[in-house]
Design goal:
The protein is of the alpha/beta class and 244 residues long. Helices cover 36% and strands 15% of the residues. The strands form three sheets. A two-stranded parallel ribbon has the order 1-2. Strands 3-6 form a two-stranded parallel sheet. Helix 6 crosses helix 7. The relative contact order is 0.09.
């Protein structure tokens, strides 16, 4: 047994092609994402290390093997604390099938799952719709920017809780993020600038207002110091200064 283990840890054969490794995730620029569609350097084999974006959004030609870890980083929203964070959790059976389907698109291929069939049976049938893990205030603000008057009546494929949407709309109205407070909002610029932040709406409102008083730098510092745990949990929790 030890001999087999030592053999598995030995260096690859000299005639083995070197790997040309490329990352692939949703926040990458389009230019960098396009590299996975280009042929690898001569004499090398391409290896794409991808997130869920490669499950359904993209089809990469020439992929013969898929290695599925059985995990994903999923965004979860806590309605009690109002905080969203990314957690590593098991995928669903539907996601596992999608990952396996990435191999053999244009040629024969195989999928290797790093979990047993018994573990696979413990997976959920389908993943929770992403819209149900989105903070209601961000969802309302996004739809309002699309001129959707009555968000509660919007025909969602998977409808969020109507009471949560109504409460979020009232909260946004009190913070002058919606139409109806012309004395506080002279135009829609503050509306869209608040929506562009990836922080919570309440924090985005404070950051927007701090800029009008010339205290944006201090507001950023206070916000970061009081929400350090949230910042560590949320990889996309950044503020876009360009939106000022």
């Amino acid at each position: 047994m030890m001999d087999d283990l030592d053999a598995s840890l030995s260096l690859p054969p000299k005639d083995c092609q070197p790997l040309y490794c490329l990352p692939l995730y949703s926040l990458m620029s389009s230019e960098k994402q396009r590299r996975v569609f280009q042929p690898p350097p001569e004499g090398s084999r391409m290896c794409v290390i991808a997130t869920n974006v490669a499950e359904t959004s993209l089809t990469i030609g020439g992929i013969k093997y898929v290695v599925d870890s059985g995990y994903e980083k999923r965004r979860l929203y806590d309605p009690i604390t109002g905080v969203s964070q990314f957690v590593v959790t098991r995928i669903s059976k539907a996601s596992a099938d999608q990952r396996a389907g990435r191999s053999g698109r244009t040629a024969a291929g195989h999928a290797y799952r790093l979990y047993s069939s018994a573990v696979f049976q413990t997976f959920e049938e389908f993943s929770c719709p992403e819209i149900l893990n989105k903070p209601p205030d961000q969802l309302v603000l996004h739809l309002k920017s699309m001129n959707i008057v009555k968000v509660v009546n919007f025909p969602f494929p998977s409808a969020p809780d109507s009471e949560a949407l109504e409460a979020a709309e009232k909260a946004l109205d009190k913070t002058w993020c919606l139409e109806g407070h012309n004395e506080e909002r002279k135009d829609r610029s503050s509306y869209h600038s608040t929506r562009s932040y990836t922080v919570s709406i309440s924090a985005g409102t404070r950051l927007r207002k701090s800029h009008s008083y010339g205290e944006s730098t201090r507001a950023y510092a206070v916000r970061n110091s009081t929400h350090c745990c949230s910042f560590r949990a949320r990889a996309t929790n950044t503020c876009f200064i360009d939106s000022w």
